[in-house]
Write a structure and sequence with these properties.
Layout lengths: L18 E4 L5 H4 L9 E4 L9 H11 L4 E4 L13 H13 L5 E4 L2 E3 L3 E6 L5 H18 L4 E3 L13 H12 L2 E5 H10 L4 H6 L6 E6 L3 E4 L2 E3 L8 H14 L4 E3 L8 H18 L3 H12 L1
Parallel strand pairs: 1-2, 1-12, 2-3, 3-4, 4-7, 7-8, 8-9, 9-12
Antiparallel strand pairs: 5-6, 10-11
């Protein structure tokens, strides 16, 4: 790291640390005896595990007892017009408390309209939508009795847009006083699909609100269209964007997503280790710590 690079001081109040991996059933047997040291937390969708019993439930509970968990929801429908599903939120709250889940996040999108749509659809970027979404987030936080994190989504259209996406994201998290679930790959995908500068967008994100981040691979449909599949290795421009995020905001917990064409655990760990390598480039050295302590003494 050159002297010309700006480094923000890393926060020390994250509820997880290091590198995480999304928990997938295909890895249960590999995780049965030991969780690799490089995996410091794991992520699940609570909707997939609430009230699950039998062998799968037992395997899940065994893993949950041995590694910190975060939850990334799929069905909050935070941008929808239908009333919040408070029955589901009550069940999620119980799940979070039972498994001592560190963070709960969901998507800055809508996914239901008189029934689930099974897709994460973009919310119109308007001032009215900011107030609508922020109010629903505040209600979710009231029910769950915790701050939640909201993830910036990938998208392929921007219906009803009146303001920039970055204005919309910042407006929502400030008004709702919630956390940010930063998806680095989604910024890159959207920068291609919507033709904006990914670096400038990233630098405008509310880094002080980051809970943890996602990094993933995607599918290149064409030069001007990327599909967020979570079904491939992370590509070089996304790694570069992650480095920029660490430079701007300090090192934050980062989780590798892989939902399709999931390789064996030992192959996944190779990419987990690569995240650790990138984090190590931006972690303060002992020399930095000594300088900080000397400044405090003075």
């Amino acid at each position: 790291m050159g002297d010309g690079h700006r480094r923000s001081a890393a926060r020390d109040d994250y509820l997880v640390s290091g590198v995480g991996l999304g928990l997938r059933r295909v890895h249960f047997e590999s995780l049965a005896d030991q969780i690799p040291e490089s995996i410091q937390f794991m992520e699940v969708a609570p909707e997939n595990w609430i009230d699950v019993g039998g062998k799968g439930g037992k395997q899940f509970r065994s893993i949950a007892e041995r590694v910190p968990l975060v939850c990334h929801g799929l069905a909050l429908n935070i941008g929808g017009l239908a009333p919040l599903d408070e029955l589901l939120l009550g069940r999620i709250k119980q799940f979070l408390n039972t498994h001592q889940v560190r963070y709960y996040s969901d998507h800055l999108s809508y996914c239901a309209d008189h029934g689930h749509l099974y897709d994460l659809l973009p919310i119109p970027f308007t001032d009215d939508a900011i107030h609508h979404v922020a109010g629903r987030i505040r209600r979710v936080q009231e029910i769950l009795e915790r701050r939640i994190a909201i993830e910036n989504i990938s998208s392929y259209a921007a219906p009803g847009q009146e303001i920039d996406e970055i204005q919309f994201i910042n407006g929502v998290v400030e008004e709702a006083d919630c956390l940010l679930h930063l998806d680095v790959n989604n910024i890159y995908v959207n920068s291609i699909n919507h033709r904006f500068d990914a670096a400038e967008f990233l630098k405008a994100m509310p880094g002080h609100r980051i809970a943890y981040a996602h990094i993933a691979g995607h599918f290149c449909r064409s030069e001007d269209l990327r599909i967020d599949t979570h079904g491939a290795d992370v590509i070089a421009p996304v790694w570069d964007l992650l480095d920029l995020a660490y430079r701007e905001f300090g090192v934050f917990p980062t989780l590798l997503e892989r939902d399709f064409d999931v390789p064996t655990l030992d192959v996944m760990v190779l990419e987990v280790e690569k995240i650790r390598e990138h984090q190590s480039r931006w972690r303060p050295t002992q020399h930095d710590a000594d300088l900080k302590q000397s400044a405090q003494v003075v």
